[in-house]
Design goal:
alpha/beta; Rossmann fold; globular
């Protein structure tokens, strides 16, 4: 399995990488939505994207809508991983095409549970 983690925080990306690599999951990183778009268009084998909402250059919601409306990664599951925990944000993300939602702060168990749930 290959996971793209998109977050402007190096700390969060490192935590996610450590959690996933311990499980034998390959990890690719991007620090904003624009970098993530470049990764998605160049690497067709990404199974899951863990996506922060609030980032510079291109935020996670813009990335999400771009990927889903342009059908750039139709079989890739997208999991929002963010501090935005209002029900309105969750619904907005799900309606735009997110498959799941994780609140920060998170535990390794929650991250793995959500990834395995969406990846099958």
């Amino acid at each position: 399995m290959k996971v793209l983690t998109v977050d402007d925080s190096l700390t969060v990306r490192t935590m996610v990488r450590n959690i996933l690599e311990e499980e034998g999951i390959q990890v690719v990183e991007a620090e904003n939505g624009q970098e993530a778009l470049d990764v998605v268009t160049s690497q067709q084998d990404i199974n899951v994207i863990l996506l922060d909402w609030e980032m510079p250059i291109m935020d996670g919601f813009t990335f999400l809508t771009e990927v889903r409306t342009k059908n750039l990664a139709p079989s890739t599951k997208i999991v929002m991983l963010t501090t935005l925990n209002k029900m309105s944000n969750i619904l907005k993300a799900i309606e735009a095409g997110a498959d799941e939602y994780i609140m920060k702060p998170f535990t390794p168990d929650v991250v793995l549970e959500k990834i395995h749930a969406v990846a099958g």
